[in-house]
Specification:
Length: 376
Amino acid sequence: MTFTTLALVVALGLLGPLLALPKRWHLPVILGELLAGIVFGTTGFGILDAEDPVFVFLADMGFALVMFAAGTHVPVRDPAVRGALGAGIVRAALVGVVAAGAGWAVAQAFGTGHAAIYAVLLASSSAAMALPIIDSLGLSGPPVLALTAQVAIADTACIVALPLVIDPGNAARAAVGALVIAACAGVMFLILRYLRQTGAQRQVHEVSEERKFTLELRVSLVLVFALCGVASALHVSIMLGGFAAGLAVAGVGEPRRVAKQVFAISDGLLAPLFFVWLGARLDLRELGEHPRLILLGLVLGFGAVAVHCAARVLGQPVAYGALAAAQIGVPVAAVTVGSQLGVLVPGEGSAIMLATLCTIAVATAAASRLAARPTT
């Protein structure tokens, strides 16, 4: 990657805010960034090389920070969220049960033998997708708290489950890696809480603010990248590493000043770069070579929405169920790992990404509808 290419990627990222500018459209910023990547990437003009190692590494950094921000956005210290945790667990469990049956049915219909993979995809939610949409549109209230809990639980569970179902031969290693990440995040939380209780964190804050050292931001970046490094070394997705680090920081309370600094780095550069890269990585033309898999993509995409809307029987409005169906991280990991291991059939990866775009489109429409009316 050259500076010229980097300038192009950053410029393409501006399409997100431009499309989101008209408030009446209620479009999330990431939608424009994905579209820009699709147009200039593999599917479109082919100007952006999504396989460029530098581009990939910068995108991974952006994904790590997106997941970190998603974790810090989960208000784990809020008593109202704790009250909504039960509802979130029950809804996520119901969606998981329905997804298991639906995944088996889809695998049987298309003869791929990937029932377990489809079940995880259908059940997955994306904190990196849903929470930014919620924040950008200003959605709030008890239903949003329950939705936040549900998405966080489903996202974490599916991130852990994906390596187990896509590479059963290394399931034990993946399970151990996830436990190590969880333990590291727990230790991180205890250390941060100790520093806060002893006043050390306050002293560092005062020195940093007086001398303009941005020490807290630097420490936050060290924590998230270190945990993502552990995840990579243990062959666990950086999704889990970034999200776990964010939860640890959220557990002790992220200082407002640090939150703004992380937001500037993430949403100002690395997050848009990640979403442009993701769009550039998609090869939607591949579906033309395997028309039957277009139907598979549509079934998986709208099937995920239907599966999540099953929570309506527990009192969740359909629009919130559709928003919970938004996916990104788990499908990307499934396509990446599945392609590397040769698990997916030709065109199946593109079908999974088509399904992802379907869930994003439906979630965007649902969020727009929610934003257009008072939250209850």
